[in-house]
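hiii so um. not sure if this is the right channel but i have a protein structure encoded as tokens and i wanna go backwards to a sequence. like what aa goes where. can anyone help
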């Protein structure tokens, strides 16, 4: 949804200049770029060339760190989340007698988000190994990653479940069909991992139309 909105905004920005409304749209656009960078790092997917180019220009080094994963990506996740997250509020009044126990709502939600990020830090490393094989022994992969085989099995099952999403096709906004949100899919048969990779072709029609528009 962020991608659809950002493409629309990029095509109509020349007609929206001036006024407070334009400033508000520009601010929300920057927040959406930060959020889509986070989303793509969690679930890599092909974006419209316009969005991909803008992300590279805005977050070149940061985007590379997110895609590599690991400990180095943690400060980037935190910075992008705090710059783009909603202005969270606390449902309870502050304790004025004990100010030390009061928790800032933004910090609280940031901590929750970062705990989620830490469970996906090594996704890029695992996927880089899986892409090299069509079948692979679980213990062999565990040896590469230097982790316990059963711990890795649990991680693979949880990550596969997380990669499932509801994809809108027709009907109401909340309706859709279950689909794999990642280009890489796998299944476990005992200790054997079956891997399949769906590669999407480049959308040449959109590419030609954009370059023709630049020529005129």
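sure thing!! here u go:
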């Amino acid at each position: 949804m962020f991608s659809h909105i950002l493409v629309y905004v990029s095509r109509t920005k020349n007609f929206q200049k001036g006024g407070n409304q334009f400033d508000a749209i520009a601010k929300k656009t920057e927040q959406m770029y930060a959020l889509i960078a986070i989303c793509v790092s969690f679930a890599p997917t092909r974006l419209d060339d316009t969005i991909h180019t803008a992300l590279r220009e805005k977050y070149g080094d940061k985007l590379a760190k997110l895609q590599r994963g690991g400990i180095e990506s943690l400060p980037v996740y935190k910075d992008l989340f705090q710059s783009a997250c909603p202005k969270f509020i606390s449902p309870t009044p502050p304790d004025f007698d004990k100010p030390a126990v009061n928790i800032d709502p933004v910090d609280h939600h940031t901590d929750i988000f970062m705990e989620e990020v830490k469970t996906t830090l090594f996704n890029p490393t695992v996927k880089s190994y899986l892409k090299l094989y069509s079948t692979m022994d679980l213990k062999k992969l565990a040896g590469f990653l230097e982790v316990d085989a059963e711990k890795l099995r649990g991680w693979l099952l949880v990550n596969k479940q997380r990669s499932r999403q509801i994809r809108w096709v027709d009907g109401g906004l909340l309706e859709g069909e279950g689909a794999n949100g990642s280009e890489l899919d796998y299944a476990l048969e005992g200790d054997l991992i079956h891997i399949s990779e769906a590669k999407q072709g480049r959308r040449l029609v959109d590419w030609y139309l954009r370059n023709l528009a630049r020529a005129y």
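oh and The two ends are 30 Å apart (CA to CA).
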